[in-house]
Every structure is written in structure tokens, then in C-alpha cells.
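User: My notes are a mess, but here's the protein and zinc ion's SMILES. Can you give me a structure?
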Amino acid sequence: MSRLAVAAACLVASLGTGASDAVRHPDVCPGKCDKAITYSLDPQFDEEERALIQDGMRVWERGTGERVCFVPGGHDLVIDKLERADDLAAWDPDWRHHIALTKGGHIWIVATRVDDPSEYRALVVHELGHHLGIGHIEDATLTYMHSTINDTPPELCASGRLPERDARAFCEVHRCTCAY
Ligand SMILES: [Zn+2]
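Assistant: No problem, the inputs look usable. Here's the predicted complex:
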């Protein structure tokens, strides 16, 4: 897995949009795109990066039956590109070990450390998981939420499919009681 091998993603889980959107009645679930997350991408991302970020969003949208819904043009979530790892230092004391950070409605990606498209997408899926309030998951193999990005199984990177464990984690955080 090349240069990502030494890099953990982030330690700081964001309780971002949706954390308070609990489903209070067991028979009630959010409908498709009921609680859209508006987002803005740093203009410094190139076309390929933008496409991979939007791919990562689609992984969550499809995997949650569209309960997660990302809509361009707002600031619920701002994704920024950093050219250098030490640009993370302002927000992350452990920046030397990280290639991305999710915190308070922001995701920062250190672009220069990402060289494989499917790994890049997996990293985005991981950070979006934090934005959705999900922490690291170590009790399953098939998850995007391992604390170290190179523990993401290659078949997940390749498929771009949200595994059941991650969909369940979303459901637990958002107290969604519907079956997918
Ligand atoms: Zn993480």
C-alpha cells in the first residue's frame, strides 16, 4: 500500500451533522435526503480528487439507503486540501502520524501523501465516517474505520461498497432502527 503504510488517518472523531438527529420513534426513520449535509470543496482539489471525494460520499449515500445525503454548495462540511503534513499542526498535535483530520465540520486532507485513487477514496470514506459521528472500529475486518488506513481491506478499496459493519455503526450513532 505504498506510502500510506506508515500513516494513520485521524484520531479526532467529529460529532458532526446528524449527531442530534436521533430517530426517537422505533417505527420512524429518516427518509431519503431528509437531513442533507451541504459541503464545499477547496478549489485547490483537482478534477480527479473532486471526483474521488464525491465517490466517497456516494459510498455513504448508497450504503445507508440515502439516509446520508451530501449536497454541494454549503458549509455543513468543508473539505480542504493541505500541501504539507505540518499544515495540520495547527489543529492536530499528532500531525506527524496523520494524512487527514476530521474536526468540527472540517476535513483536511494532506494531498501529497496520497498516490493511489482507491486508497484516496477509502481515506475520504473514513474521514466522512468521522464526520458522521463514527469512531474507529477494530472489531471487524471489513470496515473503512480502522485507525490505520492501510488496514482497510483491498477489496473494500476496490469495490467502494459500504460494509455492513459501517452501516450498522451509522445506525447506532443516529439511533436509526430501520433495517437497510
Ligand atoms: Zn480515523
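Residues 1-24 have pLDDT under 50 and may be disordered.
User: Great, I'll file this with my notes.
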